[in-house]
Specification:
Order of helices and strands: EEEEEEEEEEE
Number of helices: 0
Distance between the termini: 40 Å
Shape: globular
Structural class: mainly beta
Radius of gyration: 13 Å
Largest sheet: 7 strands, mixed
Number of strands: 11
């Protein structure tokens, strides 16, 4: 099994920055793609960003392009999400996800999930 633990959430003013981290443990060597999703109150969970095992391929939802950067350190079994120029509409619980196969933007294709970390952006 694989366990994912997120950290780095918090309260920030609009225009500020946060960096989320997600550390994988257990059978982390079996993982390929890792991703971040988010869920705002009353809304469905949505894709934010994903990265391949090598880090050579990344994909972002349009609303975060140019502001968020996903990266990973396989030696530390950790994936990061650097979030800059944050907006109030970025407020959500952010979830780390992982799967054994290739990069995907589809929620149901990810096998492993973290517990989530709250990000709140004040205006």
């Amino acid at each position: 099994q694989v366990q994912l633990v997120e950290s780095g959430g918090g309260l920030v003013q609009a225009g500020g920055s946060l960096r989320l981290s997600c550390r994988a443990s257990g059978r982390a060597f079996s993982l390929n793609a890792m991703a971040w999703f988010r869920q705002a109150p009353g809304k469905e969970r949505e894709f934010v960003a994903a990265i391949s095992w090598s880090g050579g391929s990344t994909y972002y939802t349009d609303s975060v392009k140019g502001r968020f950067t996903i990266s990973r350190d396989n030696a530390k079994n950790t994936v990061y999400l650097q979030m800059n120029s944050l907006k109030p509409e970025d407020t959500a619980v952010y979830y780390c996800a992982a799967r054994k196969r290739n990069l995907s933007i589809t929620t149901r294709l990810y096998e492993y999930w973290g517990q989530g970390t709250q990000v709140t952006v004040s205006s």
